[in-house]
Amino acid sequence: MEQGLELTNVCKSFATAQGELKVLDSISFALNPGEVVSIVGASGSGKTTLLRIVAGLETPDDGIVKLNGNKINGPGPERALIFQQFGLMPWLNVLDNILFSLATSDLSKDEQLDRARDVIARVGLEGFESFHPNVLSGGMQQRVGIARAIAVGPKLLLCDEPFASVDAMTRLNMQTDLLNIVTQQGIMVLLITHDIEEALFLGDRVVMFSSRPARVIEEIDVGIPKPREHSVRTSAVFQKQRARVWELLQEAA
Amino acid sequence: MGTPTRSGITPKNTPASDISRPVARLRTFLARPGVLSFAILIVILTAWEIAGRTGILNIFFFSTPSAIFIKAWSLLVSGQLLFHSLRTGSAYFLGVIFAIFLGASCGLAMGWWRRFGAVVDPYVVFFSAMPRIALFPIILLIFGIGDVSRAIIVFLGVLFPVLFNAYVGAKQTPQLLIDVGRVFGYSHNRLFIAVILPAALPYLIAGFRIGITLGIILIVVAEFLAASAGLGQQIAVTAQTYQIAEMWAWVLYTSLYALVIVRGMDYLERYLMRWA
User: Fold this and answer.
1) Do B198 and A91 touch (CB under 8 A)?
2) What is the three-class DSSP state of B109?
3) Taking burial as the number of CB atoms within 10 A of a residue's CB, which of A87, A196, B150, B170 is the most buried?
4) Does a structural domain hold residue A97?
């Protein structure tokens, strides 16, 4: 029953003091199983709203979102979210922050602990289990955020500008690490970003949104095979795609 | 021999460092803030004592430190201090514990279950504005002169600051943290325990702090008005019978009592907020 994620004519408006504000206008696209899709578009184009709808934090005014054939109407354990501002509980240490996402699962306490230790190793946080978020760098905090999200074993990982609050050097390493993790486990990823390079490096496809109200203006296949190394960033294909996305976004603006 | 001469030349058998080292050590000791604070206290007490004995200060009102300390000592060794402290403490802690428990849970609930908050809000605003000591006469009529009446006054005083802070604390919980909980499948009720309560903890503690200090004032005032024992009652009785030295001794002990409670709160805060 692996059918991927399917969005059909998703619309969303918000009531403001100035009247209705339409942020999403008939958004339709799909993610195939195991695929990483990046969404790029101007700030305030409703990308985050779309992600929140897929996460089940908001309901669309119109349209349908289906994951593996099931209509989404609320949060669920097959989806996990990585937040731009990390969203770690400041009163919990690294281990407990990761156990936070597992507490609602059916796993026993021991299984939860095993799972948490496993993902801690996978994101390279060994030795930091008892540290609280306030003593960790932004990059380390986001590693906790990633560990917490993949701990629940999601089919679909939703990433809301995951590395926007992380310094440039760390960002490049974390992009590679995230790509390796999701590729190994065959997790679908819906990634929102302002960073064209990030969209291309992580994405199998890039979906471009117009500015508000958001409509899909273009979908491109990145066409670079996986696994990808850091070096693909300097390849001719990568540079060509980058120029193309930039051009399309300029035209849409 | 062995001491520096006027010209500063030191005899060979006593190197300069042997003498200057203790002097330097004494200087650093005297420069410590705690030592200075204590020195200031000694100066004030000495001035007070001299002023009292020479008649500059009217000892009928101000007594003298020596007379107060003698009284304070006898209150300590006779067990009167313990007796009255326990009587004050039983009413105080009864009121404070109930107020913190009810105030915190009610305030947090008002912040998280918005409808409940909206319904209860006008009552909270009215009672928090009310000078609640105004209820003391009727409380005395209903519950009599015992500990319960004073515990109720403390309870009413402590309740609202704790409740208000808890209310604000629950309402200010970052939406991001609530979203995180929802994404990972936490129900509304479960979020309350897992996110709202710990996120509001700094506010709760601020409320406790205001509450416990207000509670000390209220228990003393309530004991002035109606009590058969307690620190505040002793202050009132000794003042009314012109036992001024003993009155000051009780004032001193009441202050120390409050200090111990506030310090206890500091430790509780450090324990609860050890992650920050």
Assistant:
1) yes
2) helix
3) B150
4) no
Substitution target in B178, B184, B203 with the highest count of A β-carbons within 10 Å is: B184
> A114 burial class (0-12, 13-18, 19+ CB within 10 angstroms)?
exposed
pLDDT per residue of chain B (276 residues) written in tens, 0 to 9: 444 444 444 455 555 556 678 888 888 888 888 898 999 999 999 999 999 999 999 999 999 999 999 999 999 999 999 999 999 999 999 999 999 999 999 999 999 998 999 999 998 888 888 888 888 999 999 999 888 999 999 999 999 999 999 999 999 999 999 999 999 999 999 999 999 999 999 999 999 999 999 999 999 999 998 888 999 999 999 999 999 999 999 999 999 999 999 999 999 999 988 877
pTM as predicted? 0.83
- Is residue A206 one of the residues assigned to a domain? yes
Residue of chain A with shortest Cα separation from B197: A91
Where do runs of H (alpha helix) occur along chain A?
47-55, 94-102, 109-122, 138-151, 168-185, 196-202, 236-252
* Chain B residue with minimum CA distance to A78: B184
* Interface probe, candidates A48, A59, A82, A89, chain B, greatest B C-beta count within 10 A: A89
What range does the domain containing A241 cover? 1-38+61-73+195-253
ipTM, two decimals, is 0.92
Residue of B nearest to A53 (CA): B183
Within a domain: residue A245?
Answer: yes
A131 secondary structure, DSSP code:
-
Side-chain-facing half-sphere of B56: CA atoms under 13 Å: 6
Total of domains in chain A:
1
Domain boundaries along the sequence of chain B: 76-272
